[in-house]
Amino acid sequence: MPGYLPFAGALALPAYTCDNCGFWQRHFETPPHCPMCLDARHVVPQDGWRFWTEREAQARFPCHWEELEPGVWRFWNEPVSGIGPSAYLIQTPAGNMGFEACPVFSEAALQHIASLGGLKVLSSSHPHAYGALVQLQDRFDPELCLPAADFTWSAALQVSWPYDDFLEPLPGLELHRTAGHFDGHAVLFDRARKILFCGDALKFELDPGNPRRATTISAHKAFVRGVPLTTNELRRYRDVFAMLDFTQTWTPFEPAANCGRAEVLALIDGMLATRPHAAPVPLDSLR
């Protein structure tokens, strides 16, 4: 049953976040290293490991928030070290859903989330965007929905609703596993707003004069290392994206309001017709 914890000792341990990538671990002392930084999709710190407690991270990384569209809030840290993803809170008549997490939430940000009604459901696209999910789970005790394929990365969390390839945790909000970037990589589709929260399936460069307008689009197995996806991974992406009628595509970093399904499929089809690559493609060339 939801909320049943036969052994909750691990979740009582203090949590630490890595300065290099923002991944949180629960440990009885400062962790010796970060498994996310040691993964092939990332890089190790050049000058050694540094980890922060929740209060230390809150003091170092200011938290900001804004309502990007009616009922859709973004939370982010600036300045911040590490990967620095954004968190999204989506309000629905059935309750609020959190997707992704910023590196650390300030007390004021957590109080603002509480004022919006808290969180009924929480999820993320993949471990690079887990951020401070631990704070949200500790404070609001939502159902945590994560793909079973990425369960190995969730040691700091309590997954209450694992899923395989599809889950609709709240009416109109659909989780679809794409795999590719991570085995459990997933996207969130908001049917009513036609927004696809695409995780790291896609990457955009934004117009400096208009932070909601993307100028290029790309796809990667590993963005930092410039590694392309395989042909079969791109085919799976295409199968998922083709089912979803989205007109906006938001990553954990760039909420691109001017890119939808047509441009995303054109990018993928172009690579399937030649060979996969990780280079940014001008968005206008895909229209």
UniProtKB/TrEMBL annotation:
It comes from the Bacteria. Residues 148-207 form the Metallo-beta-lactamase domain. InterPro entries: Metallo-B-lactamas (IPR001279), RibonucZ/Hydroxyglut_hydro (IPR036866). This is Metallo-beta-lactamase domain-containing protein. It comes from Methylobacterium soli.
